[in-house]
Design brief:
The complex is a heterodimer of chains A (about 400) and B (about 300).
Chain A: H1 5-15, E1 22-25, H2 28-36, E2 43-47, E3 58-59, E4 67-70, H3 73-83, E5 87-89, E6 98-99, E7 103-107, E8 111-122, E9 127-133, H4 140-146, E10 151-155, H5 164-173, H6 179-197, E11 200-211, E12 216-218, E13 221-225, H7 234-237, H8 247-254, E14 258-261, E15 266-270, H9 273-285, E16 292-295, H10 302-313, E17 320-327, H11 332-345, E18 352-358, H12 361-369, E19 376-377, H13 381-395
Parallel strand pairs in A: 15-17, 17-18, 18-19
Antiparallel strand pairs in A: 1-7, 2-4, 2-7, 3-5, 5-6, 8-9, 8-11, 9-10, 11-12, 11-13, 14-16
Chain B: E1 11-14, H1 19-31, E2 35-39, E3 47-48, E4 52-55, H2 58-65, E5 69-72, H3 76-88, E6 93-96, H4 103-113, E7 119-121, E8 127-130, E9 141-144, E10 153-160, H5 163-175, E11 180-185, H6 196-205, E12 211-217, H7 222-233, E13 238-243, H8 267-276, E14 280-281, H9 288-298
Parallel strand pairs in B: 1-2, 1-5, 2-4, 5-6, 6-7, 10-11, 10-12, 12-13, 13-14
Antiparallel strand pairs in B: 3-4, 8-9, 8-11
Helix pairs in contact in B: 3-4, 6-7, 7-8
Classes of the chains: A alpha+beta (about 400), B alpha/beta (about 300).
Chain lengths: ~400, ~300
């Protein structure tokens, strides 16, 4: 799960991680009043959408840039007016863009140095690891590739948490000395506490800045949360903004289906995550292009299969469906009935290829064959993939 | 022979009275597995299916029945606790089937287990099967949720992160007349108890295993590490398959651990590592058993 920039700043405030003063505004008038409450001097107004590349984006009304500096509350109001309710297109949103509902209004800071600081879960050591670099404000993967010696990796013992000496070590490696070292120690400790308390899988502060007047603050942050832990993080769940998510994925999650939309034209419906990935791959191997990842899980019901069909068919790009089920414990005949019902209910009119294998498979195949539906059977996964690719090409 | 468990292994089931645990406990009993105890706190003294005694604690179950292996079916908020209860009771092996355990909990479990004699498999895994000699491999040791009947007693070891892909591989082997020594699902989470490499080492030492199928997927670098070791040390032919070549970067593909991030954990990198180690790569999931047969003929 992802959150907005202003929500990240709210988390920072809650855990005492210093960041630039400012607040979110829902209307231009609110933007003006937020700006009036700040210290004066330069202001920044930032459109709130999840996608990156906001500064270089363009609104569909022609207004350029989702991040602007200005000098007065009146100007902040004017900027907010040009952003709120408008659709911002960035290199990450796709051509359809995202409607901006809110803006963040904050004090602009004079930056002396830009640094990088992140905490994530390291799979190899099964522990949190801190990653820090003097090269902030740029893409860290590029830094890691070109100048790996400029990246510090420091594992943290999950029982001890981050130790004070570790925070000093990181500060020293970033050249944060004197009064900045104390600020850094506090910021790193508080950020680590936030990471653990809110079940993050990643917190990336980029850039972490030193201002001209000697303050250390997190200027921008990206959070990822562990989906498995959301059940115990109601305050994080409350930050979810479904308008930022693919509506097909939102609908699928209501039915406990694991769905990820892609941009191909052959949809697939599979049981098991590994098999679902492999089914996408084999569609491509057979010369087609997968429209989605969809795992209906080990104990899929008829209702879930029907919901999966509706979600798949709501996608106008989809020109064919491949169902791939290995019914180990699940009865293939029950699944076959689910498919038939769903296909009839949704008035299926595009090619459908079904590959069933496993428990009670003969009865399942019979159910499909006698259903009156126009569908093909695949003998094995490759056969099924080749059949659906051919059927979609023939129909085009 | 086999690895980790044999048909004589005494198994206890944590969460035996939940619907999921009960269903699979019954299927294991039907398969002929020696399920000797169940554990559900507060239900000690009752019987499961009129034949398996239920205990309040793992410690009691172990002392009363001599169980050495546990299958954990308890819900995610209680799973870390259940695993560590099995470790504390001195079990040889804890197999955690539960999906959806917070990663911070698993981090703590892994660190708490350091120095213990217990091995953990999973979480978020289908478990493991050592097939029996009866009809449809009846009489084997089935721990977890895999369908027992698809197996056949034999000499191929299977290790995989995914349940259904394991079943595909097993079924392909069985229908081609190749049986299995042990099939191990290590699970799809980013932090797990047992890696591909751990299982590969066991298969390499097991006289009952003559060839190996290793199935991986995007995310992490465990497959690369296993391949690098195999290139140097593995005496037995291996075939491999990697799922997720078409998965977009930065998206979790169902399994919590199946994610390409920062250019790491791609299918290309894993397939290249397999090839470099002389592992025969299955082009598609339909080709897993045939790939192994090709590799064995080459050996």
């Amino acid at each position: 799960m992802n959150i907005h920039e202003f929500q990240a700043r709210e988390l920072f405030a809650e855990f005492g991680v210093s960041t630039q003063p400012g607040k979110v505004a829902n209307t231009p008038a609110e933007a003006e009043s937020v700006a009036s409450g700040l210290a004066g001097g330069k202001l920044v107004v930032k459109a709130q959408i999840h996608a990156g590349g906001r500064g270089k984006g363009t609104f569909k009304n022609g207004f350029k840039g989702g991040v602007h500096l200005c000098d007065s509350p009146a100007e902040a109001k004017d900027l907010a007016e040009k952003m709120i309710g408008q659709v911002l297109v960035t290199h990450q949103t796709g051509p359809e863009g995202k409607e901006v509902g809110k803006v963040f209004v904050g004090e602009a800071v004079d930056i002396a140095r830009e640094l990088y600081f992140a905490i994530l879960i390291d799979r190899a050591t099964s522990a949190p690891v801190v990653i820090a670099s003097t090269e902030g404000g740029v893409d860290i993967e590029t830094v890691a590739e070109k100048t790996p010696d400029k990246i510090l990796r420091l594992p943290v013992n999950p029982f001890l948490g981050i130790m004070p000496y570790q925070t000093r070590l990181i500060a020293a490696s970033l050249g944060l000395t004197g009064p900045l070292m104390n600020q850094a120690s506090k910021l790193f400790t508080n950020l680590y506490n936030l990471f653990v308390a809110r079940d993050c899988s990643m917190v990336e502060v980029n850039p972490l800045v030193v201002t001209q007047d000697g303050r250390l603050m997190a200027l921008d942050a990206k959070f990822n949360f562990d989906d498995n832990a959301l059940y115990r993080q109601p305050s994080i769940v409350a930050m979810r903004d479904v308008t930022e998510e693919d509506p097909r994925e939102v609908e699928a999650s209501k039915h406990s289906l694991n769905y990820i939309g892609l941009d191909g034209n052959i949809a697939c419906l599979v049981n098991g995550a590994g098999l679902a990935m492999a089914t996408m791959d084999i569609i491509q191997h057979a010369g087609g292009s997968p429209a989605n990842f969809l795992d209906v899980g080990g104990g899929a019901t008829k209702e879930q299969v029907a919901a999966a069909f509706r979600i798949i068919l709501a996608d106008p790009l989809v020109k064919g469906i491949l169902v791939n089920i290995f019914g180990g414990i699940m009865d293939c005949d029950v699944i076959a009935h689910g498919i038939v019902e769903a296909a009839k209910e949704t008035g299926l009119s595009i090619p459908l290829v079904v590959r069933l294998e496993g428990n009670n498979v003969d009865a399942g195949k019979k159910t499909l064959a006698s259903s009156g539906l126009k569908l093909e059977s695949g003998e094995h996964i490759l056969d099924a993939a080749q059949k659906i690719v051919a059927a979609v090409k023939a129909a085009a | 022979m086999s690895i980790l468990v044999t048909p004589d292994t005494k198994v206890l089931i944590q969460g035996i009275t939940g619907s999921f645990g009960a269903r699979h406990a019954k299927l294991s009993l039907d398969y002929g597995t020696k399920v000797v105890a169940g554990v559900t706190p507060g239900k000690g003294g009752q019987m499961f299916e009129s034949q398996v005694p239920i205990f309040d604690t793992v410690d009691q179950a172990v002392r009363e029945t001599g169980a050495t292996v546990s299958a954990v079916f308890v819900p995610p908020p209680f799973a870390a606790d259940a695993i560590l209860e099995g470790v504390e009771a001195g079990l040889d092996l804890v197999v955690c089937i539960t999906e959806g355990i917070p990663v911070i909990d698993m981090m703590k479990v892994k660190h708490a287990m350091k120095g213990s004699k217990t091995r953990l498999i999973g979480p978020n895994c289908p478990g493991l099967v050592t097939p029996g000699t009866g009809e449809n491999s009846h009489g084997g040791c089935r721990i977890g949720i895999a369908p027992g009947y698809i197996h056949r007693k034999g000499n191929v070891g299977v290790v995989s992160r995914s349940g259904t892909l394991t079943y595909e591989a097993v079924w392909q082997l069985t229908t081609r007349g190749y049986g299995q020594s042990t099939c191990v699902g290590i699970g799809g989470d980013p932090i797990n108890g047992t890696s591909h490499l751990d299982v590969l080492k066991m298969f390499n030492e097991d006289p009952g295993t003559e060839a190996i199928i290793m199935i991986g997927e995007i995310g992490g670098t465990a497959e690369e590490e296993a391949a690098a070791w195999a290139a140097q040390h593995c005496k037995k032919p291996i075939a491999g398959f990697i799922a997720g070549a078409t998965a977009p970067e930065g998206r979790r593909m169902g399994h919590a651990g199946a994610i390409v991030s920062g250019g790491q954990g791609t299918a290309e990198s894993k397939i290249a590592a397999f090839r470099a180690a002389g592992i025969e790569v299955a082009e598609t999931p339909s080709d897993m058993a045939d790939a192994l047969i090709r590799r064995m003929k080459r050996a």
